[in-house]
Specification:
heterotrimer; A mainly alpha; B mainly alpha; C mainly alpha; B: mainly alpha; C: mainly alpha; 4 helices
């Protein structure tokens, strides 16, 4: 069976949803179930024969290259889990058919994007993702949401234009849009002919970085993710941001941007963590922590080793699930309390449903990577795959993450018997089920991982120590939370200037690296 | 303008000029695609049987792009509708006010009615002959929609909208999307797309030669026309409100 | 020296980006964004502009020197995407303008922040 079936099924279901106008949730559920079936089939095929490559419409070498490789499998798994959880979460909310259609279009474009190996196809799909998430953020039409998503649209569209300019330059020099072909041509260029590569790479990297939640580029992110409705923020933070990271991962195979990604990763990780520490609103703190987690991913991609790449993929899945879980649980708690301010949640913590509190606790434990939970395995791969300097930086990020999430502990560590709704608990359970999924994924992505076992115990001990230090600092030194950081960065004008400066940052880093 | 605003602007100008200079310096005199052009056009025309190579790419070899491009358009139409009309979580985001019936003078109205048939005919021609001459589904649909725009601006959107059933339009529009995706799915699944698609290819230059492209173009034209009308309708209806 | 169209496109890109920062009014910002987006379209379509070439539409008999058809096909997608983005952004600016009676980005930013704190 052809691999384009998954996106096509989602899109047809979206169209049927809008045509029928009723029973949309059942149509969505059917499309989701079909997606799960296809994914299970492909994982089976992948385990047997390895990556599946396909070219759609290849006459005159103009077709679109698609591949179902390791990244694609990881992303499809994440997509199915998160969309399933969002469907379960909103089952009783009487959402309109337009919402479900947008959800299906978003899921379908994620499916297509994760297998696309064509630069222009990636552009179209990223724009489709921008538009659907733009509409989903503003779905409830509160002014904050409309303004946040308008800023998002302006900056993301500018970023995509810059990316397209880079693609135009690459095409003018190489004459092809498919990544494998471009890779072959670039490898055969002599140094004298390659003067344009840093510029094309800078434009494309900076353009995608706007969508990937990288600090200095994605200054629209906290407002959009913090103000969107519960299920939508879970999808955006868990899935849509990662699509940008995936695009960078694909680009890093052919363009010399490994070093750049490490630099951007460090910047993003530290800045995101700082902003998350001082943020008073729980959902925005989660959004900033997404920035800092993207830092891990970029450092992993930049390390450019096989182990680090496996780590990145596992971390994308683990983080997507548990950040989604946290957004859903905190969002529900906020709905019950009437505000998502951390102080308000702390005061009214007894009114928060028990299932939400358990979910927050599990999510925090998984995201900081406590031994043998959630992101722990992914982080281990990341550590094994990266250089010693990067490893120190990664430990710093683990410390910062623990510091951020220590602030959620007072909310959840309380006795109380407030019951939650059953469908919401089901959505938590679906995401919590990600734990065995990451194990299974490790089996598919990296067969024969016996050589890691020796380091596991040492790694676990280190993690425990660093996380304990982070929690201690977070709970004992409240003065940290009153740091003042510049807020005016988050306006449109500054955002545009930051993107332009980011292009130069990438350009200079590439030139310095070669 | 504040001190800070001025600083930001100066920074932006400097950075943008720098990027522009770098781009100018790095573009080649001749695109690498240019030397491949003749060979590409030859292969395209012989595989689809349509003499318009651009159309062969759009609804042929890069159909996988075009499918999502169609969706981008439909999502935009959906977004305009749920924001201005309601149908999302709440009602319309704009508070309804007395509808402005800004009809133009009699001369304008009559000439708009007079111009509408030839414009529509031109749009249909562009869509039907899109694969053998300049044109295609997108441009055809856009031309028909702008013909309707002419009438709507002249006699008022309400008068035109009365002839259309809102819900029906949406159903037809998304129905066209579903059919396009279904045809694409069948041709992808069969593995016949590398030739001409669902229907057999003919000789270059014949109208009926490459029926698949014709079908795609017609469906796209219907979709673009209906979607364009919805957007235009809402924009005209809310003009002069703010 | 690249083709003239490419030079013009790059100039438009620079002007558009500058206008996006300098003009504070949202409608002007959208115009600037439209300019940036259209400049990339012009860039793509003029990559392969040479003298004495024809459009890649073949009369059944002869095939003269034709231009590269691929960028022209890509441009179609880019145009539709730009149209979609501008339409949606305009609708949202309409909604904001109706709520705050201004299209000035700075004022809307402040008003939204105040409303959020309450």
């Amino acid at each position: 069976m052809t691999i384009v079936a998954a996106p096509l099924i989602h899109m047809i279901a979206a169209a049927i949803c809008l045509m029928a106008g009723r029973r949309s949730r059942w149509i969505v559920l059917a499309a989701w179930a079909a997606g799960v079936g296809l994914l299970a089939y492909w994982i089976g095929v992948f385990a047997e024969t390895g990556p599946i490559h396909e070219t759609v419409g290849d006459w005159g070498a103009l077709g679109i290259r698609l591949a179902l490789d390791r990244p694609a499998i990881a992303f499809l798994l994440l997509e199915q889990l998160l969309v399933g959880a969002v469907i379960a979460h909103g089952w009783r909310s009487r959402l309109s058919s337009a919402f479900y259609a947008l959800l299906l279009v978003l899921a379908g474009s994620v499916c297509a994007l994760c297998m696309s190996l064509d630069l222009f196809n990636m552009y179209v799909l990223l724009e489709l993702l921008t538009l659907t998430s733009f509409l989903l953020v503003a779905y409830e039409r509160r002014s904050v949401q409309i303004w946040a998503s308008l800023k998002y649209l302006l900056l993301a569209s500018l970023g995509m234009s810059i990316y397209l300019a880079g693609v135009a330059l690459l095409y003018a020099q190489v004459g092809s849009l498919s990544l494998p072909q471009i890779g072959e041509v670039l490898a055969s260029l002599s140094p004298g002919e390659a003067g344009w590569i840093p510029i094309a790479a800078a434009l494309m990297t900076a353009g995608i970085a706007v969508k990937a939640g990288i600090f200095l580029y994605s200054l629209w992110l906290p407002a959009a993710h913090g103000s969107a409705s519960t299920g939508v923020s879970a999808l955006l933070s868990g899935l849509v941001i990662k699509m940008g990271v995936l695009a960078l991962l694909r680009l890093s195979v052919i363009l010399p941007i490994d070093h750049v990604l490490t630099v951007l990763g460090v910047m993003t990780g530290i800045a995101g963590a700082l902003y998350a520490i001082v943020e008073t609103d729980a959902k925005r703190a989660l959004a900033f922590s997404t920035l800092s987690q993207v830092g891990y991913l970029l450092i992993g991609v930049g390390a450019a080793t096989e182990a680090a790449k496996i780590g990145v993929l596992m971390y994308i899945v683990a983080h997507g699930m548990f950040k989604g879980l946290l957004f859903l649980a905190i969002g529900d708690a906020g709905e019950r309390v009437g505000s998502t301010e951390i102080s308000a949640l702390r005061i009214h913590r007894r009114e928060i449903p028990r299932s939400s509190r358990v979910a927050v606790l599990v999510g925090c434990a998984a995201i900081v990577g406590l031994p043998f939970v959630g992101a722990f395995w992914a982080k281990e791969w990341l550590f094994v795959g990266s250089a010693p300097v990067d490893r120190a930086l990664l430990w710093l990020l683990v410390f910062c993450t623990a510091l951020v999430f220590s602030r959620f502990l007072p909310i959840v560590l309380v006795r109380g018997r407030c019951p939650g709704e059953r469908n919401k608990s089901l959505s938590y359970a679906l995401l919590g089920a990600g734990l065995p999924c990451t194990f299974a994924l490790a089996g598919v992505l990296a067969p024969g991982r016996g050589w890691l076992m020796g380091t596991t115990l040492v790694h676990a001990a280190w993690t425990l120590a660093v996380v304990a230090a982070g929690v201690l600092v977070g709970t004992r030194i409240p003065a940290l939370m009153t740091l003042r950081l510049p807020r005016s960065l988050f306006r449109i004008e500054e955002g545009v200037v930051a993107i332009l400066a980011g292009v130069f940052l990438v350009y200079v880093t590439i030139c310095a690296g070669t | 303008m504040t001190q800070r605003g001025r600083l930001t602007s100066i920074l932006a100008v400097v950075l943008a000029c720098g990027i522009g200079g770098l781009l100018l310096w790095s573009f080649p005199e001749r695109s690498a695609g240019g030397s491949l052009a003749v060979a590409r056009v030859g292969v395209l025309v012989s595989s689809t049987g349509a003499s318009n190579a651009v159309c062969s790419i759009v609804v042929g070899s890069r159909l996988f792009d075009t499918l999502f491009e169609i969706l981008v358009y439909s999502v935009a139409v959906l977004g305009v509708r749920i924001t201005l009309q309601g149908g999302g979580a709440e009602g319309s985001a704009l508070t309804p006010s007395a509808m402005h019936e800004l009809a133009e003078s009699d001369v304008v109205c009559r000439s708009a009615y007079l111009l509408f048939p030839p414009v529509t005919l031109l749009g249909i021609y562009l869509a039907v002959f899109g694969h053998v001459s300049p044109g295609g589904g997108f441009s055809g649909g856009a031309v028909i929609a702008s013909g309707l725009l002419l009438v709507a601006v002249a006699v008022g959107a309400q008068a035109v909208a009365r002839r259309f059933h809102e819900r029906m339009l949406e159903r037809i529009e998304w129905g066209a999307v579903a059919v396009i995706f279904a045809i694409a799915a069948v041709s992808f699944l069969d593995g016949v797309l590398p030739r001409a698609g669902l229907f057999p290819a003919g000789n270059p230059g014949e109208l009926i030669g490459s029926r698949t492209l014709l079908v795609y173009n017609l469906l796209i034209a219907i979709k673009v026309f209906l979607g364009g009308w919805v957007i235009i309708h809402f924009f005209i209806e809310h003009r002069g409100e703010i | 020296m690249p083709p003239a169209g490419v030079v013009v496109a790059i100039a438009l890109l620079v002007i558009g980006v500058c206008a996006l920062v300098i003009r504070r009014d949202l409608v002007f910002k959208l115009l600037a964004l439209g300019m940036v987006n259209s400049s990339t379209i012009l860039l793509l379509i003029s990559l392969d502009s040479r003298r004495s070439t024809t459009a890649p539409i073949v009369p059944p008999s002869a095939m003269a020197a034709v231009v590269d058809p691929l960028p022209q096909a890509l441009v179609l997608a880019a145009i539709v995407i730009n149209f979609a983005i501008l339409a949606l952004a305009l609708v949202f600016v309409m909604v904001l303008a109706e709520r705050y009676h201004t299209t000035d980005a700075g004022r809307i930013e402040r008003a939204v922040a105040q409303e959020d704190e309450r």
